[in-house]
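Need residues for this backbone.
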């Protein structure tokens, strides 16, 4: 079997020499600045999604609004947790999380929505989840083995975004699609 591990003295020497880099070592195989930029775009996406779900939670009305609003609130809380996880990873990599409200929607992959009808709200949320699923899948594939920790973060988010999309599809299947004040 071929040797794969750098000798321990070399590892120790490198660890001491570049201590200010925190967890980023010579073994890091991705473009660090681009990864931080992508993380900040995902952070903006999660913040916009949180805001959209919160708006939908507070403005949902109609016969079926109570269980749908509860789903919106749950998703908003999970999207906020995603944003927190992304911000934490940015800081771990030595970057700065970008919470600038003036540029959030420009950096976000998903769009904000101010729909008034319950069905339209669900559909717009489902579209946003599908956008997140597609972009996070591409990001995880792009990261590959270059940054396995960040890839796993995106894979975790991806799994929950898929769950959200399934939840929303289920709501659409159960709620009558009439335009009678929903």
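Answer:
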């Amino acid at each position: 079997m071929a040797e794969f591990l750098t000798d321990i003295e070399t590892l120790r020497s490198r660890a001491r020499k570049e201590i200010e880099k925190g967890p980023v070592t010579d073994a890091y195989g991705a473009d660090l600045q681009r990864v931080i930029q992508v993380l900040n775009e995902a952070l903006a996406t999660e913040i916009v999604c949180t805001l959209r779900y919160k708006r939908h939670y507070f403005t949902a009305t109609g016969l079926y609004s109570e269980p749908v609003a509860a789903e919106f609130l749950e998703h908003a809380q999970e999207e906020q947790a995603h944003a927190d996880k992304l911000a934490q990873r940015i800081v771990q990599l030595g970057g700065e999380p970008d919470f600038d409200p003036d540029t959030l929607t420009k950096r976000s992959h998903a769009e904000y929505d101010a729909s008034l009808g319950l069905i339209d709200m669900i559909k717009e949320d489902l579209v946003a989840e599908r956008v997140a699923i597609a972009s996070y899948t591409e990001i995880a594939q792009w990261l590959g083995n270059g940054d396995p920790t960040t890839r796993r973060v995106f894979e975790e988010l991806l799994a929950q975004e898929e769950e959200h999309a399934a939840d929303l599809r289920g709501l659409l299947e159960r709620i009558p699609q009439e335009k009678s004040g929903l």
